[in-house]
């Protein structure tokens, strides 16, 4: 049997390799980078992703390093008051799974090790997919180094700047949001006692916010500072100038500025997404994760969605046994409204976090009156386990 080819070895590509292999398909995965590596720092895991971790057989490994915070807390970055708080201890009772945070390198490593333990997954680094040709029986991929590889299908998990997408969808460049994320991880014991809490805290301010939460059993703190700027073009994972960050956070609370001032080395990301759309499948080729539906990170769901995609894709291959094109079409049809909703709502949440003036007052008044159960219920559309044909777990 020709293997299913995967372009990209991020969280989405490795998740897909694992899901497909566990469903009985041999896989050959090409990663452009010289080694498997996950850039960035923390990642939030909603209850919706835990069923996927179970299905992929990596839950135990992921939970070993993850932290379960007590609450999500939103505070005003300008005046300091608490805007709202969602306790997280009720998540397992309501959604059957917890809310957790982890280092993305730890999540990526758990997936990688699980892939490496399976003889039917061939992982190749420093192998960049250049182009592909599809026919009725399969797909031939040409790599940058000139090699041509034959597979039964191709999954483009090659991220925001996906080349596979350029052939399948051909819709040009992603939307540059003008939102810049500065990220850092610092040892917990270098921070003041008052901020060493086991919670996800979001300081919301006009056109900016700061999020921090503990990682690696509470040994380090993850910080993400976001502000609006048209100063940056398309940078990704580069060293960020702290002075520029401080200037944007000039008018924020001393607690916020104190936290920012303790970090010397920041990396920055220019945040991009796309309008949701159909059409990311063509015959035996489909897209997955950020290649299919890149989203702003304000719902903390991009990687969660990629892992849902991975499990759904493998399930559709089982349901449509032998008919890859039908399985891929079913996969897209099952995923497009859910991922499109998250893409859309992520932008809305960004507006809510970054509100200023009267809009900020309206937000605070609206959120102040909410009880925690209603807050939790308001997220059921996202955190409830998604259902699709063939989900055996
Ligand atoms: P990527 O991680 O981009 O992986 C693509 C891979 O493909 C890369 O390894 C790349 O080298 C490789 N590649 C590219 N081109 C080729 C080629 N031609 N041939 C071969 N290989 C190629 N998500 C969450 O779920 N929770 C969060 O809390 C969260 N927080 C975030 C915070 C920030 C600031 C940002 C920017 C994102 C956040 N996300 C979060 C989103 C999440 O990081 C992404 O959605 C997720 O990592 C996408 O995974 P992916 O595998 O689809 O793409």
What name does the CATH topology carry? FAD/NAD(P)-binding domain
**What portion of residues belong to β-strands?**
25-35%
Distance separating the two termini: 26 Å
CATH architecture heading: 3-Layer(bba) Sandwich
Small-molecule components bound = flavin-adenine dinucleotide
User: Major beta sheet, specifics?
Assistant: 8 strands, mixed
Low-confidence stretches: none
Number of domains: 1
CATH class type: Alpha Beta
Main sheet: which strands, in order across?
5-4-13-14-15-12-17-16
Mean pLDDT equals 94
Backbone shape:
globular
Rounded to an integer, what's the Rg over CA atoms? 21 Å
CATH superfamily: FAD/NAD(P)-binding domain
Could you provide a short overview of the structure?
With 393 residues, the protein is α/β, with parallel strands linked by helices. It has helices at 11-22, 47-56, 59-65, 91-95, 104-116, 163-168, 242-248, 254-261, 302-319, 324-353, 357-368, 372-378, 380-383; strands at 4-7, 27-30, 42-45, 71-76, 82-87, 100-103, 121-124, 129-134, 139-143, 148-151, 153-156, 175-187, 200-205, 208-215, 220-228, 236-240, 266-273, 281-282, 285-287.
Question: What tags apply to this protein structure?
Answer:
393 residues, alpha/beta, FAD/NAD(P)-binding domain, 19 strands, binds flavin-adenine dinucleotide
Would you mind describing this structure in some detail?
- The chain is α/β, with parallel strands linked by helices.
- It has one domain: FAD/NAD(P)-binding domain (3-Layer(bba) Sandwich).
- It has helices spanning 11-22, 47-56, 59-65, 91-95, 104-116, 163-168, 242-248, 254-261, 302-319, 324-353, 357-368, 372-378, 380-383; strands at residues 4-7, 27-30, 42-45, 71-76, 82-87, 100-103, 121-124, 129-134, 139-143, 148-151, 153-156, 175-187, 200-205, 208-215, 220-228, 236-240, 266-273, 281-282, 285-287.
- The chain starts with a strand and ends in a 10-residue tail after the last helix.
- Bound molecules: flavin-adenine dinucleotide.
- Its cofactor is FAD.
């Amino acid at each position: 049997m020709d293997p299913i080819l995967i372009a990209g070895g991020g969280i989405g590509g490795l998740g897909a390799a694992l899901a497909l292999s566990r469903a009985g398909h041999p896989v050959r995965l090409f990663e452009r980078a010289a080694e498997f590596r996950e850039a960035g720092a923390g990642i939030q895991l909603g209850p919706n992703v835990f069923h996927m971790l179970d299905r992929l057989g990596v839950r135990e490994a992921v939970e070993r390093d993850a932290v379960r915070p007590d609450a999500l807390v939103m505070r005003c970055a300008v005046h300091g008051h608490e805007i709202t708080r969602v306790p997280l201890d009720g998540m397992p009772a309501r959604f059957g799974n917890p809310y957790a945070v982890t280092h993305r390198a730890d999540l990526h490593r758990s997936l990688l090790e699980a892939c490496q333990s399976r003889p039917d997954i061939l992982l190749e680094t420093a192998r960049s997919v250049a182009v592909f040709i599809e026919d009725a029986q399969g797909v031939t991929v040409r790599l940058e180094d000139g090699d041509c590889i034959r597979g039964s299908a191709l999954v483009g998990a090659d991220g925001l700047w996906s080349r596979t997408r350029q052939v399948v969808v051909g819709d040009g460049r992603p939307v540059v949001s003008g939102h810049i994320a500065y990220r850092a991880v610092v040892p917990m014991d270098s921070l003041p006692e008052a901020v060493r809490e086991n919670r996800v805290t979001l300081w919301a301010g006009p056109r900016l916010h700061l999020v921090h939460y503990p990682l690696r059993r509470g040994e380090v703190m993850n910080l993400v500072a976001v502000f609006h700027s048209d100063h940056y073009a398309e940078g990704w994972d580069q060293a960020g100038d702290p002075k520029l960050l401080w200037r944007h956070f000039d008018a924020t609370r001393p607690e916020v500025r104190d936290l920012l001032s303790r970090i010397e080395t920041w990396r920055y990301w220019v945040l991009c997404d796309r309008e949701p759309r159909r059409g990311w499948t063509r015959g035996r080729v489909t897209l997955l994760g950020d290649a299919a539906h890149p989203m702003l990170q304000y719902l903390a769901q991009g990687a969660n969605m990629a892992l849902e995609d991975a499990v759904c894709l493998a399930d559709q291959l089982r349901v449509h046994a032998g008919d890859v094109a039908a399985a891929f079409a079913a996969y897209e049809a099952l995923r497009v409204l859910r991922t499109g909703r998250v893409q859309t709502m992520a932008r809305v949440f960004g507006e809510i976090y970054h509100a200023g003036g009267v809009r900020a007052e309206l937000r605070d008044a609206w959120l102040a009156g909410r009880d925690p159960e209603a807050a939790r219920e308001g997220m059921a559309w996202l955190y409830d386990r998604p259902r699709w044909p063939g989900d055996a777990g």
